[in-house]
Amino acid sequence: MKNHRGITLIEVLASVTILAIAVLAMVYILQQSTLFSKQNNDKENNVQVARTVMEEIKINLKPGTPINPFGSSIQISALKGVPVVALPLFYSSAAQTVRIEVQSLTLPATASNNLNIKGTNYNINTYFRLVQVTCTNVQTSKSYSLQAYVEIN
After folding, report:
1. 150: closest CA among 79, 49, 46?
2. pLDDT in tens, the chain (153 residues)
3. Residues 6+ apart with CB under 8 A from 48
4. pTM (2 d.p.)
5. In what order do the strands lie in the sheet with 143-151?
6. 112, CA 20 to 30 Å: which among 31, 44, 85, 151?
7. Where are the domains of the chain?
8. How many alpha carbons fall within 13 Å on the CB side of residue 82?
9. How would you classify residue 51: left for phi > 0, otherwise alpha for psi between -120 and 50, otherwise beta?
10. Eight-state DSSP code of residue 153
11. Are the C-beta atoms of 135 and 99 separated by less than 8 Å?
12. d(Cα 35, Cα 140) in Å, to the nearest integer?
């Protein structure tokens, strides 16, 4: 029974310091994963909004009827005309969390405007429009763009 020293104060302080560093590292990792999860959730929300608006446009552009995504009425007949028409609206209009912009873009320069099928020439611009829907989160300014060719005739 000579050597019953126990734990010294320095050993206790060292173990508490190591434990505190480990706890702080775990808290930091949890905070970063929560932040990353929120960013992914915001991006997924933008993707869903863009897809919903694009589907409404695909259904309603040919007959020229206005669309009503998320309660906001929008005339899309302007998308049939001259390209680069921007139609802004807001998703969740009370909070205005997502800004949606719908544009009719010019066809890429590499695409030929005329298509010859069985001896008949068709001008692609009279049948299709390249429509882009851009959803931007108002708080974070992160955006998601979706492009699709939409039939107009």
Report:
1. 79
2. 566 677 788 999 999 999 999 999 999 999 999 999 988 988 888 888 889 888 888 888 777 777 777 777 777 777 766 655 566 666 665 566 788 888 887 777 655 677 778 888 777 777 788 888 888 888 888 889 999 888 877
3. none
4. 0.68
5. 86-91, 98-105, 128-137, 143-151
6. 85
7. 9-151
8. 2
9. alpha
10. -
11. yes
12. 12
Tokens read off for 70: 């998320």
At position 129, the amino acid (one-letter code) is R
| Cα radius of gyration rounded to whole Å, the chain | 28
Dig out the tokens for 59 from the structure: 């259904």
Expressed in angstroms, the distance from the first to the final Cα of the chain is 99
Distance CA 80, CA 135 (A): 21
How many residues appear in the chain? 153
Alpha helices by DSSP H, listed for the chain, are 9-60
Category of 38 on φ-ψ map: left (φ > 0), alpha (ψ -120 to 50) or beta: alpha
In the 8-state DSSP scheme, what is residue 123? E
Main-chain phi, psi angles of 74, to 5 degrees: -140, 130
| Cα of 134 vs its chain's centroid, Å | 7
Q: Taking the alpha carbons of 104, 110, 114, 115 in that order, is the dihedral positive or negative?
A: negative
